[in-house]
Amino acid sequence: MHRLKTDLAITSPGRINLIGEHTDYNDGFVLPAAIDKAIILKLGKNGTKSDCRIHSQGFGKVVHIDLGNITKSNNDWENYILGVLYELMLLTDKLKGFDCTIESHLPIGSGVSSSAALECGLAFGLNELFDLGLHKWDIIQLSQRAEHNYVGTKCGIMDQFASVMGKDQHVMLLDCKTLDFEYIPINIEPYRILLLNTNVKHNLAFGEYNVRREQCHNGLTIVGKQFQIGGTFRNVTMDMLNACRSEMGDVVYNRCSYVIQENERVLEAVQALRDRKMDRFGELLYQTHKGLSEQFEVSCPELDFLVDFSKEWKEVLGARMMGGGFGGCTLNIVHKDVVEDFIEESSKVYKKKFSLELSAFQTVPSKGTSIMEKNG
Ligand code: GLA
């Protein structure tokens, strides 16, 4: 294979979310951070009008894309790229042929949002390479649209936002209704953020994620008909929801009550972080897991097992499934002295129960999508 051209290297991180799950597409609050693991994209202009050569090291092949003829592929990872190119072409005519090599240091399907990292990294890099004049929020929103339109997951804004806006040693409280956000310094010493990857792969495009979104929307429509709430979850109270319970049925009621309670938990968790009340912070994470498992029903036996196991450790303040669900990681707040032991014991019991390997990694809130290297 001929050498692909590189003018620019971009690092685009994955994300964690401390609390605020399945709230982003419900006008709610989230508390994510970018992490110290990323996808690296090397980009260069190749002098052609519209021929793009994309080499993914993980998938070991070069894909050719003609900017003049962008259509969906059967491969998800290609659709992330095609989707971004499609959205960019709607915004600008400055995009020309380019080469791109993708090197991922993010485990796929583990709930740290490798997809958003890829989308945002590509959009960010092409913006730089071709001087497209896009701002960070343009990049975030076009990447979200790429996922909606090309991959089919009707995701919220959290992942793309976290990947692009991340800041070292800070989490971000994002109001997904107004898109206002605040950086919150995170000092949780002597605790560590530990991710345990179940190695069970989910695929959000396979429907359940979109079904949850639909159910929340249906619940909101029913409450909206009865009360003047301006079509947003933020104005829905538990009393309103209770008044509509029989009309919406138990499943939709459970989804909606989870959302209302989770929003309250996010705000309380932020206060606990500010006051350094780490025990309370941990309890809130456990409550979130319970809600995700029982009311929102997006957990799975592997995730529930790991969260239950963590409760046997007094040095673990809290744990919960993270991300869309149906697999991926648990996020654990663990005292630094027991991190190694906790990983070892969790791996042992997990393997015994599910005959699966557990992978573990510690992470810290880190900077968002940025330029690593620029030639010329
Ligand atoms: C996925 C989506 C996000 C968010 C989470 C759940 O990661 O991409 O927008 O909805 O699930 O909180």
UniProtKB/TrEMBL annotation:
Alphabetically ordered keywords of this record: ATP-binding, Carbohydrate metabolism, Cytoplasm, Galactose metabolism, Kinase, Magnesium, Metal-binding, Nucleotide-binding, Transferase
Gene3D superfamilies membership: 3.30.230.10, GHMP kinase, C-terminal domain (3.30.70.890)
InterPro entries xrefs: Galactokinase, Galactokinase_CS, GalKase_N, GHMP_kinase_C_dom, GHMP_kinase_C_sf, GHMP_kinase_N_dom, Mevalonate/galactokinase, Ribosomal_Su5_D2-typ_SF
Any one Gene Ontology BP term: galactose metabolic process
Gene Ontology cellular component annotations, sorted alphabetically: cytosol
Xref: SUPFAM superfamilies: GHMP Kinase, C-terminal domain, Ribosomal protein S5 domain 2-like
Domain Galactokinase N-terminal: 8-41
Official protein name in the record: Galactokinase
Organism: Flagellimonas pelagia
Gene name tied to this protein: galK
